[in-house]
Amino acid sequence: MRQVAALVAILAAMLTGIGILFTAPSRLSEEVIVMLGVAFATSLAVILRGPLGKALVGSSPDEIAADKEWRARISGQIDEVLDELREVRQDSMDLQERVDFAERLLTRTTDPKHLEKP
C-alpha cells in the first residue's frame, strides 16, 4: 500500500511539473525547465522500473514463459495454415488450367456448318 501511495505522489508531482512546463515557459528560466525535465525523466524511469512498470508491460517471469509458449504454438499453427494455403493455391492453378483447356476444346469446332460464312 505504501508503494501505491508513493507512486501516486510521484505521478502527481510529474503531472504538476508537466503543467508548469507547458503553461508557463516564459516565466521560467532555462535552468528551471531543464531541472524539471530531468526530474520528470528520473521519476518516469523510477516508476517504469518498479511494480507499476512491470504491471504495464506484464513482464513477470511466468508471463514471459507463457508468452514464449504461446508464440511457439501460434507460429506452428501459422506454418500449418500457410502450407494449406499453398496447397489451395496450387489446386486453384490446376483447376484454372483445366478450365482453359476445356475452353480451348469447346472453341474448336469440327462441324463444317460453323466454318462457313453466314
> What is the first-to-last residue Cα distance?
97 Å
Strand content: under 5%
Please count the beta strands (DSSP E, at least 2 residues each): 0
- Coarse morphology: elongated
How do the helices and strands follow one another from N- to C-terminus?
Answer: HHHHH
Give the % helix: over 70%
Largest β-sheet summary: none
Catalogue the unreliable spans. none
How many individual helices?
5
The gyration radius over C-alpha positions equals: 35 Å
Mean pLDDT: 75
Can you tell me the number of structural domains?
A: 2
Task: Classify the secondary structure makeup into a structural class.
Answer: mainly alpha
Structure report:
This protein is an all-alpha fold. The chain has two domains: 1-58; 60-108. The chain has five helices and no strands. It has helices at residues 2-23, 30-49, 51-57, 61-107, 112-115. Helix 1 (2-23) runs antiparallel to helix 2. The longest helix is centred in the C-terminal third of the chain and has 47 residues, at 61-107. The protein is elongated and about 100 Å long.
Show the helix and strand layout.
Blueprint: H1 2-23, H2 30-49, H3 51-57, H4 61-107, H5 112-115
Helix pairs in contact: 1-2
